[in-house]
User: Fold Kinesin-domain-containing protein from Candida tenuis.
Amino acid sequence: MQMKNALLHVEHERRYLHNKLQELKGNIRVYCRIRPPSPGVHPQQLAEIEYPADDNDVDESLCQAISISKELPSSEYLQGQTQARNKTSYTFKFDKVFGPSHQNSQVFDELSQLVQSALDGFNVCVFAYGQTGSGKTWTMSHPGDGMIPLTIHKIFDDISDLKQNGWEYSVEGQFLEIYNETIIDLLANGSGDTKYDIKHDDINGKTTISNLRTIRLNSAQEALMLFNKSALNRSTASTNSNERSSRSHSIFVLNIKGFNAKIGTSCEGCLNLVDLAGSERLNNSQAKGDRLKETQYINKSLSCLGDVIYSLGQPKNNHVPYRNSKLTYLLKHSLGGNSKTLMFVNISPAATNFNESLNSFRFATKVGNTKRGSGIRK
Ligand code: ADP
Ligand code: MG
Assistant:
C-alpha cells in the first residue's frame, strides 16, 4: 500500500511538473525556421535575413528575433519612402529561430517535450506553415529525421521506459488530407464517395471521424512503415502530384492511451502533426477555375486557423470560430482547453520570396502573440 502511494506520488509529481514547465513555456509556441538556399543559388538572389548566432541568444522575454531586409528600388528611394539608407527592414520575435544550419534533430529537441505531454494525456497540435518550397515537408516528414519519424521513435522509446513505472500504452494512427474542404483518407483506397463526418464528444473532449481508417500501431517500425508508405501514396496519387500535396493540409494523427494498473490511473492524448497547404497568395489575375477555388479554400482555412488560435488567447472572447473551416473544426479539441500548440513558420531565403516571407512572419506573429497559460481559457 505504501509502495503504491509512493509510486502514485512520484507519477503525479512527474506529470504535474512536466506540464507546469510546458505551461510556463506557453501552451502556444511559434518557432521560425529558415531553410538553406537551394544549391547553385547566387548570394545576390537571397533576401537579407539576420537571425540569432546561437541557441542561447534570447532576449528578456525569452524570445529570439529575426530581421528581414530588402533593398528598395531606387525610384522608391527617391520618393523618400524609406527608413535608413535605401533599405527597409522588418523585425519579428518568436519563441525560437532556427537558422539554415540547424538540423531536424535540433528542431525536434524542442518538440520532444510536447510528445511527452501527449503521453501524459494532453492533446497536441504541431503545424508547419509557409509557402510552397519553404521546407514544411522537409521539417515534418523527412523520412530519416523529420518531426513525424522522430516523434514516432520517441513515443515508442518512452512507452518502453514508462513500463517501469507501471504504464501500458496503446497507440493508434490515422492519416488524412483536407483538400478543398473535403477529407481524404490516406490509409484507405477509398472509392471517392465515402462520407467522412466529424463528430465531437464535447464532454470528454474527443473527436471521431466516421469511416476513417484507424490502425493499431505496435512498434515504431510498424508506425514508420505505415507513415512512409502513405506519404509516398500521397505524393504519387495524382498526375499533378506536387500540386495536390502542396494545396492540401495533411494530418498525421496518433491517439495514445495509457493505463497504469499499479496506481489505477489512465490517460488519453492525441498528437496531430500537420503539414499545411502552401500559404502563397496567387496573383488573382492568374487564378481561374479550379485553381481559384483551391486558393480560396486554402486562404480561408489558413486565416481561420489564425483566427481560432488568436481568439483562444483572448480571455473574454467566448466565441471561437472553429466551424469556419474543416481543419479547425476537426482539431477543435486539440486546439482549445489545456492542449498544446506548436507552429513552425517555414521561410525560404530567396529574395523573390520576400513578400511571401513577410506574410508568413505576420501570420506567425499573430499566432505567437497568443500566450495561453493554464486556466486562462477553457
Ligand atoms: P514545402 O513542403 O514547404 O513545399 P519542401 O520541404 O518540399 O517545401 O522543401 C523545398 C525544397 O527545399 C526541397 O527540395 C527540400 O529538399 C529543400 N529543403 C527544405 N528544407 C531543407 C533543409 N532544412 N535542409 C536542406 N534542404 C531543405
Ligand atoms: Mg510540401
